[in-house]
Amino acid sequence: MDEERTAAWWGRRAWALLSAVRVRAPLVQCITNLVSMDIVANALLAAGASPAMIHCLREVPDFTPRCDAVCINVGTLSEDWLPSMHAAASACRPWVLDPVAAAASEFRMEACLSLLALRPAVVRGNASEILALASRSIAASSTFKGADSSHDSGDALEAAKSLAQSTGTVIAVSGAVDYITDGNQVVGASNGVAMMQKITATGCAVTALITAFVAVEPSDALVAAACALAIFGLAGEIGMESAKGPASLRMHLVDALYCLDEQTVTSRVKITLQS
Ligand SMILES: *[C@@H]1O[C@H](CO)[C@@H](O)[C@H](O)[C@H]1NC(C)=O
């Protein structure tokens, strides 16, 4: 039976998934960029997950199959790391991709496209990244052109839907409102504060949190991604109540994520079905 997805339903789902992460402590391997390693590992720990920051190719065959999920982030991509990313993405289901600055170079774009072919459960990027990926990955498409930093998440929504349909992956576009789509349904998550963008690697951290949520809810990556985005944004809102600027927000956000309780999550998570 299809339950109606009211605000209260989303609040309960978000709390249930955060609780599942806390109880099950999913082992999440992160091949992430050098800038983000600290906040990614600490955000996962605060949420109750178990991060493993392992990227050596020779460790992948032994270690990766034991993980509950893998998070791959191309922010500080190198030729040495790409084979580890391919191997880890192939060795574990589910896995999640963060295509940081996908259009920065041809090498990076091709790396992202080759990773996309390995069927991530979720791709989480900003509007520019999703527009760039969609314009390259969707055959014969002339509709999705250009990708600059002025794009808002709403501008990338059509591209995200097409990309989701053509790849069979859930696409999450971060912005003032985060949009999450499987190509059919679109969900909006609107928790968060603007100051979070002044902290480096918050996007990477939320991608890692999505990975932990997908680890405990692999059969519904759309719901898992929407709940993780809303929970992380909510932690930012609560952190902002005590923060003086980006550095203290970073600290208070991690504390808030650790301290979230049922009442706060169910009453403050803002997720709505858009279509
Ligand atoms: C998306 O992220 C990339 C990499 O951090 C950045 O260069 C770009 O300006 C961002 N775009 C938007 C719309 O925020």
UniProtKB/TrEMBL annotation:
Pathway: Cofactor biosynthesis; thiamine diphosphate biosynthesis; 4-methyl-5-(2-phosphoethyl)-thiazole from 5-(2-hydroxyethyl)-4-methylthiazole: step 1/1. GO terms for biological process: thiamine diphosphate biosynthetic process; thiamine salvage. InterPro entries: Hyethyz_kinase. It holds the Pfam family HK. CDD domains: THZ_kinase (cd01170). Its cofactor is Mg(2+). It catalyses: 5-(2-hydroxyethyl)-4-methylthiazole + ATP = 4-methyl-5-(2-phosphooxyethyl)-thiazole + ADP + H(+). Keywords: ATP-binding, Kinase, Magnesium, Metal-binding, Nucleotide-binding, Signal, Thiamine biosynthesis, Transferase. It comes from the Eukaryota. One of its GO terms (molecular function) is hydroxyethylthiazole kinase activity. Thiazole kinase involved in thiamine salvage pathway. Belongs to the Thz kinase family. This is Hydroxyethylthiazole kinase.
